[in-house]
Design a protein that fits this description.
Layout: H1 11-22, H2 26-34, H3 40-48, H4 67-79, H5 88-100, H6 103-115, E1 120-124, E2 140-144, E3 147-158, E4 165-171, E5 185-191, H7 192-195, E6 200-204, E7 213-224, E8 228-229, H8 235-271, E9 273-274, E10 277-278, H9 283-311, H10 317-341, H11 353-361, H12 370-381
Parallel strand pairs: 1-4
Antiparallel strand pairs: 2-3, 3-7, 4-5, 5-8, 6-7, 9-10
Helix pairs in contact: 1-4, 4-8, 5-8, 8-9, 8-10, 9-10, 10-11, 10-12
Bound molecules: flavin-adenine dinucleotide.
Cofactor: FAD
InterPro entries: Acyl-CoA_DH_CS, Acyl-CoA_Oxase/DH_mid-dom, Acyl-CoA_Oxase/DH_mid-dom_sf, AcylCo_DH-like_C, AcylCo_DH/oxidase_C, AcylCoA_DH/ox_N, AcylCoA_DH/ox_N_sf, AcylCoA_DH/oxidase_NM_dom_sf
Protein name: Acyl-CoA/acyl-ACP dehydrogenase
Length: 388
């Protein structure tokens, strides 16, 4: 495994996560993928060892680490051949609750999440009829006495079957009654055990990766008013705390994937002899690998910049988006080179390349597609005209 100086200073975390990941070798992740089941043992081990409570302040029983450290944990999981998609929700949701929740909510939920009694793994934003146009979501929350009544539908909501809590985005003031379309949206903590079967239905979506994701239907689901996070109508601002964290964390996961692909293909290119020499002696083989390595390294710099700004509570939307864009692109290039230079063997499940190839491909589309990042940068950073 090569080492560079980017992200130096996290050696203790890296060593500890690597040691834990070594207990769950490639065979484990391959089998879990084959069986299309949740890596329960792996997530349990992460929880028992305190990694799932990394972002929870020490006074509530966590480790009080920042997003940079959380991103290193996610990176190492992917670099070890695993898939953080099973557990990253708890990391990116956490600051939404910590920064915008009330002291009562923090006191009630955080120690339980830190001990592993509760999981906060899900965030419900995307809807089938509005897609990326988030402010047009149609799920509504209407206040009736001491309850909010939720109606609507969500799609692609991950880890609902392996979480106790979900942060839900819903419209509390109709779109035609707000000055700005980002107003009138609110976020809620949904107790999933109470909700399922009592106004909320979960329909699993079989998909290309072993990723537990679902369609959700809300039919008069009642949520206590004390589960509103922050101020009613300001939810869009709050959900960005989670979305920016998610982008930076997924950048780190793609970087972990990128290093995994590069290590795998470099080793193979050095060993595989065809035409009497290692395939890695051919520049046609070397160059795509070297290129993707350069791109992973560059993405890594942007990822740490995004995390730094996030942890300092400075605006970081641009850097988080750019880090995710660069890292997803770099890991995809590395995945292609890895598959290509393994020849036929790249397609054999036992090499794990086809699995990681599928897993890393997701990040061109989710949690935000590359086109939407480009349009964000064009409009908000470069000042070009708004196109939609
Ligand atoms: C496995 C998986 C897990 C997910 N988990 C979650 C989750 O836990 N919670 C959650 O809320 N969501 C989740 N999502 C949803 C994910 O965030 C969305 O799929 C993603 O944001 C894209 O939205 P969409 O699918 O509605 O695509 P659309 O918005 O319908 O877009 C479709 C395509 O058109 C392009 N496009 C659309 N508009 C424009 C434009 N104006 N200019 C240029 N191109 C455009 C997009 O780039 C995209 O490629 C998940 C998705 C997947 C696949």
């Amino acid at each position: 495994m090569h080492n560079t100086s980017i992200g130096a200073g996290y050696d203790d975390i890296r060593d500890a996560v690597r040691t834990l990941c070594a207990e769950f070798p490639a065979e484990y992740h391959r089998k879990v993928d084959e069986e299309r089941r949740y890596p329960e043992e792996f997530v349990d081990a992460l929880t028992r060892n305190g990694w799932m409570a990394a972002l929870i302040p020490e006074e509530y029983g966590g480790s009080g680490l920042g997003l940079a450290e959380a991103s290193v944990i996610m990176e190492e999981i992917n670099r070890a051949g695993g898939n953080s998609g099973a557990c990253h929700g708890q990391m990116y949701n956490m600051n939404t609750l910590i920064r915008h929740g009330s002291e009562e909510q923090r006191k009630f939920y955080l120690p339980k999440i830190a001990s592993g009694e509760l999981r906060l793994q899900s965030m419900g934003v995307t809807e089938p009829t509005t897609g990326t146009d988030t402010t047009k979501i149609k799920t509504t929350a209407v206040r009736k006495g001491d309850k909010y009544v939720i109606n609507g539908q969500k799609v692609w909501i991950s880890r609902v079957q392996h979480s106790d809590l979900m942060i839900l985005l819903a419209r509390t003031t109709p779109l035609d009654q707000v000055k700005r379309k980002s107003e009138g949206l609110s976020i809620f903590l949904v107790d999933l055990k109470e909700a399922i079967g009592h106004g909320m239905t979960v329909q699993p979506i079989a998909n290309m990766v072993n990723h537990e994701t679902n369609e959700l239907f809300f039919d008069n689901l009642e949520i206590p008013v004390e589960n509103l996070i922050g101020e009613e109508g300001q939810g869009f601002k709050y959900i960005l705390t989670g979305l920016n964290a998610e982008r930076a964390l997924i950048a780190a996961e793609c970087i972990g994937d990128g290093y995994w692909f590069i290590d795998k293909v470099t080793n193979y290119a050095n060993e595989r002899i065809v035409f009497g020499r290692p395939i890695g002696q051919n520049q046609g083989v070397q160059f795509p690998i070297a290129e993707s390595f350069i791109e992973v390294e560059a993405a890594n710099l942007m990822r740490f910049e995004a995390c730094r700004l996030y942890d300092e509570q400075q605006p970081c939307g641009t850097q988080a988006n750019m880090a995710k864009y660069l890292a997803a692109k770099a890991s995809w290039e590395a995945a292609n080179a890895c598959l290509q230079f393994h020849g036929g063997f790249g397609f054999a499940c036992e090499y794990d390349i086809e699995r990681k190839f599928r897993e890393t491909r997701l990040y061109q589309v989710a949690p935000i597609s590359t086109n939407l990042i480009l349009s964000y940068v064009a409009e908000h950073v470069l000042g070009m005209p708004r196109s939609f």
